[in-house]
Specification:
The structure holds two protein chains of two kinds. By secondary structure, chain A is mostly helical. Chain A is built from eleven helices and no strands. Chain A has a single domain, classed as MetI-like fold, CATH 1.10.3720.10. In chain A, helix 4 crosses helix 5, helix 5 runs antiparallel to helix 8 and helix 6 runs antiparallel to helix 7. By secondary structure, chain B is of the alpha/beta class. In chain B, a hairpin with a 2-residue loop joins strand 4 and strand 5. The chains are: A mainly alpha, B alpha/beta.
């Protein structure tokens, strides 16, 4: 298979700012960002509580979160599909095959990723951080915020991983979004579709954008860690 | 002198093992008191309980003459009693932010906070290191920064855990000098340590702790 010609066409599409391509990229980015923004507070809060508090069911919750990391996203998509379908409990909301359904799917998929990464970061924090903050007069919430700030690069890594998991996800997005052109077609679903049609140019172009986004996120993360001088 | 802290019936166990069993412990306003004892005698545990960092059975806890419930440990006690770890933790921000952290928790206005932070830097001899990231400070400088951070809060009670441990001679001497100056005000101090030079500071009362009990009290 000649890959040079589709790659050349992919560059042309990107440089020319193909409207269809930009729409697909825009949908992918905003649905992923919206999902991460919506789940960040509960994820960080839950991870902090799991890291610091001892209560019945804590271990079961941690194990569940870890198990969900490897849960097939297409099964998550199926579950959300059944919930949002016309005959499902939330059918009246008419969210199926809309960008909102994709956001919900991304939230469910990224949630355990962000909890597990943030949990790991908080568990790795020096126990004196929280104690020092408390003994200097900080409230529980203030001491928690201070602790999270001390492990901010771990928390940012959790956000980045959650975002990466969401933006590159395909199974759930196809199930609940339906891959409708101009409405719910995002980068991974478009790549799958165009490749199945034998139109590699758009697939390669979108693949390059995905790789560029992944690289960009990691460069920003590395830069932030260097500037912070944490270690 | 009026007692700022009166604790009776303090007991701490880990399983069946009794870590601390103290009948009575008092601290007068501005009093300086050393808690001496071998490793494992319960010195650090005592300080951590008084700071609200460890739960314990407490028969009676009176602060400035008023009975206080310590479960949960009240925030007003946290603002009056400051604990400094043996190896103090400085937040990965700036030295000035560290020194102003407790003041910010007390809602001290920014301008007043900045003034007190500068005073604390001068007091501790760290003004020249103000721009140094806390992680780059030496052990002695970190200890002095932690003392300055506590000093800026003007606590009623300061709990110091082995403040001169693991310091070289010069850093140790500078830390002792700061502690001597700290004790000149109304701040009562309870210091867990073995350091003979600290024990011999004028006006220091010494509680000898052994196997979780006070077995002797002496004035230096």
């Amino acid at each position: 298979m000649d890959l040079l010609e589709p790659t050349r066409q992919a560059f042309i599409l990107l440089v020319a700012g193909d409207p269809d391509l930009l729409e697909i990229i825009g949908l992918s980015v905003w649905t992923s960002l919206a999902a991460i923004a919506l789940i960040t507070p509960p994820c960080v809060g839950l991870a902090f509580v799991l890291a610091r508090k001892r209560f019945p069911g804590r271990r079961a919750m941690i194990v569940s979160m870890q198990a969900l990391l490897s849960f097939p996203t297409v099964v998550i998509g199926l579950a959300i599909y059944l919930l949002l379908s016309r005959r499902g409990p939330f059918g009246d909301w008419q969210l199926l095959f809309t960008p909102s359904a994709i956001v919900i799917g991304y939230m469910v998929i990224a949630f355990p990723v962000m909890v597990v990464f943030t949990l790991s970061a908080v568990q790795g924090a020096d126990p004196r951080v929280y104690e020092t903050a408390r003994t200097l007069g900080a409230s529980r919430l203030g001491a928690a915020v201070t602790t999270l700030w001390e492990v901010r690069f771990g928390v940012v890594a959790a956000l980045v991983n959650g975002f990466g998991r969401a933006i590159s996800e395909v199974g759930c997005a196809i199930m609940v979004g339906g891959n409708i052109a101009g409405l719910t077609r995002n980068m991974p679903t478009a790549i799958a579709l165009e490749t199945s049609k034998g139109d590699f140019a758009q697939g390669i172009a979108l693949g390059m954008v995905l790789i560029f986004i992944a690289l960009l996120i990691n460069v920003v993360l590395a830069w932030a860690q260097g500037e912070g001088g944490l270690k | 002198m009026s007692a700022v802290l009166e604790v009776r019936g303090l007991r701490k166990c880990f399983g069946s093992r009794i870590i601390l069993d103290l009948g009575e412990i008092n601290l007068a306003r501005g009093e300086r008191c050393i808690v001496a004892g071998a490793n494992g005698s319960g010195k650090t545990t005592l300080l951590r309980i008084l700071a609200g960092l460890e739960p314990a059975e407490v028969g009676e806890f009176r602060f400035n003459g008023e009975a206080v419930s310590t479960t949960p440990y009240p925030d007003r006690l946290r603002r009056a009693i400051v604990y400094v770890h043996q190896h103090p933790y400085l937040f990965h921000t700036s030295l000035r932010h560290n020194l102003g952290y407790g003041l910010k928790c007390r809602h001290v206005p920014a301008r007043e906070r900045a003034r007190r932070v500068e005073e604390a830097l001068e007091w501790s001899g760290l003004a020249a290191s103000a721009a140094t990231p806390p992680s780059k400070l030496s052990g002695g400088e970190k200890q002095r920064a932690a003392l300055a951070r506590a000093w800026a809060l003007e606590p009623e009670i300061l709990l110091l855990d082995e403040p001169t441990a693991n310091l070289d001679q010069e850093a140790r001497q500078r830390t002792i000098d700061l502690i001597a100056r700290l004790g000149s005000g109304n701040t009562g101090m309870l210091i867990a340590c073995h350091d003979q030079e600290l024990i011999k500071l004028p006006g220091m009362r010494v509680l000898h702790l052994a196997a979780g009990r006070i077995n002797a009290t002496q004035a230096s």
